[in-house]
Sequence to fold (136 residues):
Amino acid sequence: MRVMRYNKVMFIVGLLKWWYSAGWNLRARMIMDGLDRTIDYFSIGLLLRTMFSLFRQDGAGSVDGPLTAKMEAFAGALISRFIGAGIRTMVLLMGCVTIVGRALLGILVLLLWALVPLMPIIGFVMMTTGWIPWQF
Fold:
């Protein structure tokens, strides 16, 4: 009987030890990997390096001919650069918002990770005190 109780206690101790050490590290690594994938998906560095590049390479060739043709090509390339900068700016903003949101969600998950083993105890205390969630 004593050996059985000792095994149960050691199981719970081992579980809590894993939860607050290796489990927490594993969860943090998973969150960081997800954050890295999001950063890679939005390619923030590449967007910043190519901010004023031509959009879809419209007007990328050199133009030979009269001055009016060269001016038209210059104006077309300028418009293409502004369109590209506008689209890249929007993607950059969406990417930054997504990355910050994902980072905040990751922090929340790590904080809640610490509370999960305490939930049965909290639930038991709430049950014994008669607390009902929808009645404050």
The chain has a mean pLDDT of 87. The CA atoms of residues 7 and 122 lie 24 Å apart. DSSP finds five helices and no strands in the chain.
